[in-house]
Amino acid sequence: MTSADLTPQTPAPAGGASPEALDAILRDNFAPWIQRLGLRVEEAGERRTVLRLPWSDELAREGGGLSGQAMMAAADTATALAVCAARGGFVPMTTVQQSTTFQRPVSGRDVLVDVRITKLGRTLAFAEVILTAEGAAEPAAQATTVYALLG
Fold first, then answer.
1. Which stretch of DSSP H or E encloses residue 74?
2. Which of 51, 67, 130, 147 could link 78 by a cystine bridge, Cβ 3.0 to 4.6 Å?
3. At what angle do helices 19-29 and 68-87 cross, to 10 degrees?
4. What pTM value is reported for the model?
């Protein structure tokens, strides 16, 4: 999410953020190219959110593995939605830092993007993200993220 995406289109859901409410925030507030990733919210909680990045040949690089760029975009988007869940609805924010390590390739399987908010302050949010191929025991990638909360 960039500073150009600061105007909320979806109001804060009553009583917290359900997966359906986060899917609506994703649909209403994120760029069209993010929409084309096909991300879906699987779980939503106060400090943990899980998204699914569906496998697509369009996201594969030469050799058939899922591209790192797609996984990084999924981690970034999932973190923004996790912050929205923790805050109870859409909040303007921007990525300050994201560090991603890739540990093993993913081919032909959806990726589960598991975000845990480690600190939610007044102006900054910190998170850890684990990306795991569906059915795999070990992560494909890990990321840490920091967001500036703008509203």
1. helix 68-87
2. 51
3. 120
4. 0.88
Rg (CA), the chain: 14
Instruction: Locate 17 and state its tokens.
Output: 């953020």
Q: Is residue 50 a contact partner of residue 114, using CB atoms and an 8 Å limit?
A: yes
Q: Specify burial of residue 107 (Cβ count, 10 A radius: 0-12, 13-18, 19+).
A: exposed
Looking at residue 16, what is its pLDDT?
A: 52
Query: For residues 52 and 12, what is the distance between their CA atoms, to the nearest angstrom?
Result: 22
d(CA 77, CA 48): 14
- Helices (H) and strands (E) counted in the chain, each on its own, are 3, 6
Strand partners of residue 150: none
State both tokens at 116: 């845990």
Q: What residue has token string 């990045």?
A: 53
Question: What's the distance, Cα to Cα, between the start and end of the chain in Å?
Answer: 14
Average pLDDT of each block of 10 consecutive residues along the chain (151 residues)?
Answer: 40 61 96 96 95 96 94 98 95 97 97 98 97 98 98 76
Tokens 């999932």 label which residue? 78
